[in-house]
Each structure stands twice: as structure tokens, then as C-alpha cells.
Amino acid sequence: MSHVVLLGDSIFDNAPYIGDTPDLVRQLRQHLPHGSKATLNAIDVSTTEDVHKQLRRLPKDASHLIVSAGGNDALGSSNILNAPARSTAEALLELAGIANQFEHKYQRMLTEVLAYELPTAICTVYYPRFADWALQTVAVTGLTVFNDCIIRAAFAHGIPLLDLRFICTDEGDYANSIEPSSQGGEDRLCDLEGAGM
Fold it and tell me: Which of 16, 51, 115, 130 has the most other CB atoms within 10 Å of its CB?
């Protein structure tokens, strides 16, 4: 039987945000075939660089790995959204530098994950749900460079990609402007099953 391990951040470790409703790992356990297991190694507020610590706690019988990381890396760089720039070119160069740093970190993390030679899927960073239209638009645009790195990594390594931008699309998928709800967890599980996890 399979033993799915969730790695990454609060996209999987969403219990602190959803009250008494089921968190994602509990939902996943209900969806898996009888005898299969799911383990939550993901930790809220983790960045891409934190995944290597989560791998140290990998169960010996782990059979599948799913990684959702990058959202907190993007949050850590969000000050660029309000930074002054003398030109559009200057702003784009700053964004390109952030993207290059993230890509290096993400590739290093993914190389470590894939070294376990287990079926692995990775997730894009889903869009936030800010009430302010301008902030939402700028945030979505900024996330493009992070998601581009993740998408290219999936294609380069030939592994399944769960594009959360197309999964978490409803107001009810969010517990707040940036955290997933229990409903969002159910939506993601349908995609996990489609990815053969």
C-alpha cells in the first residue's frame, strides 16, 4: 500500500487556519485506499530551503512525495512590490534577480527530493485573494516568475505538476487572503488523485 508524504508549507499544513473543519492530511487519508497512509511533514511558514529538514523525518516506508513550496519565498520578497524604481527596466531587473535566486534554491531542493527516487509531484504557488484590486494584480504578476521556475523544473525532470492556480479559484477555497481552507483542500485532493498519487 502507498504512503504519501506531504512536504512544504501551509498549503498542506493548513490546520491552524481552518478551525474545526478537516485539514488536508486528514482529508487525504480519507481519500486513500484502505491500508494506505499519509504523513504531514510540511510545516506552516516553511520556505523552499526548509524542505531538507522535512526530508530528514521521511518515513522509511514512504512511497510518494508531494511538494508545495515557494509561497513563503515569494512572501519574503514581497517588499519589491512597493519598492521605487526609476524605470520599468530597473523593476524587471530586480524581479529577475529574485527569480534567479529562487530558481537556484528550488532546483537544489528538488534535486534533494528526487534523490530518494520516489514518485514525486510538485505544486505551483496559487494566487492570493487580496480584496484590494491593485495589490492582487501586482501580487499575481510578481508570482509569475516564481511559478515559471516551478513549471520549468517539473518539465525538466518529467514529474507531475499540480497547478494550484487552476485548483484554488473559488472564494471558499481560502481561509483568509493567503491560506487554504478545508474546501480548498478537497479541491486539491481531486487533482492529487488525477496525478496518480
Answer: 51
Per-residue pLDDT, 181: 87
Predicted model pTM: 0.92
- DSSP string covering 174-196, please? BSSSSSB-HHHHHHHHHHHHHTT
pLDDT (tens digit, 9 = 90+) per residue, 111-143?
Answer: 999 999 999 999 999 999 999 999 999 999 999
Question: Among 49, 46, 11, which residue's Cα sits nearest to residue 126?
Answer: 11
CA distance linking residue 104 with residue 107, whole number of Å: 5
CATH number at residue 39: 3.40.50.1110
How far is it, in rounded angstroms, from Cα 121 to Cα 99?
21
Q: Which residues constitute the domain of residue 33?
A: 3-194
Residue 37 burial (CB < 10 Å; 0-12/13-18/19+)? middle
Question: What does the alpha-carbon distance between residue 188 and residue 40 come to, in Å, rounded to a whole number?
Answer: 15
Kindly indicate the confidence band of residue 80, based on its pLDDT and cuts at 50, 70 and 90: confident
